[in-house]
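Before any further analysis, we paired sequence with structure tokens, yielding the entry below:
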Amino acid sequence: MLVAATATAPQVAAHLATTRGIAVLPFGALEQHGPHLPLSTDTITAEAVAAALADPLDALLLPAVPYGDTWNMSGYPGTVSLRPETVTAIAQDIGRGIAASGARAFVIVNGDWGNRAPLAVAARRLDEVLPTIVLDHPGLDAAVDRVRESRPAAPGLAHAEEVETSLLLHLAPRLVGDERPAEYPHFPSDFGVRPMRMHPFSVSGVFGDAGPANPAKGAALLEAIVQTSLAVMRDMLP
């Protein structure tokens, strides 16, 4: 693995020329995660997954994008949201730039749900330049089912509760507050069908119960994401 942020231009050129030419980009967000988790939770997780993938692939690890499309959380202080077209443009520009440097495959590790649609657009547009894949934490849902003790606030929703708190207790325990909130909002019947901002539903910004979180669960969740990601990428990488 070569870390782009601390490498020189000749080192990048040599690395891409003498390996499979894979570049890995963590794409995160600056988004509220309750009173106990940092705004950078999604970025920290994406960085950890990206580094764990880049190492066995001997890839070029790019610096994380620390902002994303977090419109649904934009009613909470500290959240900074990009427009979807901005997320798409950033990913496209980075992909084209790294292709010009010699990369032959581009892997985007997405850390935030709101980035999914705009990153998918970027991947489609980049396909003519270099093979691009967006990883949205594959394997996480099955791993959550194995370790979760609390009930989710809504099907498929994991925000600042047991799952994300466990991941941060594993990855950055010093950044996790002592408080372990629980909040189960009442959602309207069309929740998940139409776009909604989340702040009217949860005062704390927690959706579920952070109480049962622990670092061992976080380690298991991260390992599941990494191993499933490697399996997903096997057929598309040069």
Remarks:
- The chain has seven helices and seven strands.
- The first strand starts at residue 2 and ends at 3.
